[in-house]
Amino acid sequence: MAKTFKNTIVIAMGGSLLIPDSIDISFLKQLKEMMKTLIDQNYQVALVIGGGKYCRHYQNAAREFNNVNDLDLDWIGIKTIHLNCELVIRSFSDLDVHENIVLKPVDIMGIEKPLIVVGAWEPGCSSDTDAVEIAENLNASRIINFSNTSHVYSEDPNNNSEAEKFETLSWEEYRKLIPSEWTPGLSAPFDPVASKIAQEKGITVAILGASIENLENYLNGEKFEGTIIS
């Protein structure tokens, strides 16, 4: 008999949370404790992990060679994500976690473990697109985008302190704020390929910052800091 969960949560987690400059062990421990709490509450969680800053370091180094193309850069990103995933799976091995990285979204079907770590598997997009495809296969109507970006802004707040901060956006409004095409290493709250699919499928995305407490507030229906795109 198939296991029944209270709900399914898809979390797309930016790799820069895990490794901002060096591996953030404190964050990893907090994340593990939160995953344990969600498992104890009978949730199933698909944790989709990104490449982050280390990925961009590798890609920037590769760009110094004229023979490297965008496909090469995407594969570097994919392999960086796999290493990040291995760190999480090994660190969380005493939880009820699926023992292997799920690469292709279709492979998540039928997995009954409450915690599943998802990596990237094809070039041409970021891990955000993997999260959307995972949500489709799990019949999840929302995705939590958990990164070092707390909100969607009208422009980069690091360049303009007066950039407008949004609490809600339609997909049409959001997609006007970001590039229309994917390029390797693109930094956007949610990538353009994923955004197009999410809009077509009616999936809601919550852009949340790097606070575990803020993520818990969102999941518990309490006041949180972030942007809802729907």
Short précis:
This protein has a single domain, classed as Acetylglutamate kinase-like (Carbamate kinase), CATH 3.40.1160.10. Helix content is 38%, strand content 17%.
* Terminus-to-terminus distance: 35 Å
Helix content: 25-40%
Radius of gyration: 17 Å
N-to-C order of helices and strands: EHHEHHEHEEEEHHEHE
Q: What fraction of residues sit in β-strands?
A: 15-25%
CATH architecture: 3-Layer(aba) Sandwich
Strand order of the largest sheet: 3-2-1-4-8-9-7
Shape: globular
Superfamily at the CATH H level? Acetylglutamate kinase-like
Low-confidence stretches: none
Given the helix and strand composition, which structural class is it?
alpha/beta
Number of domains: 1
- CATH fold annotation: Carbamate kinase
* Number of DSSP-assigned strands: 9
The first-level CATH class name: Alpha Beta
- Summarize model confidence as the mean pLDDT: 90
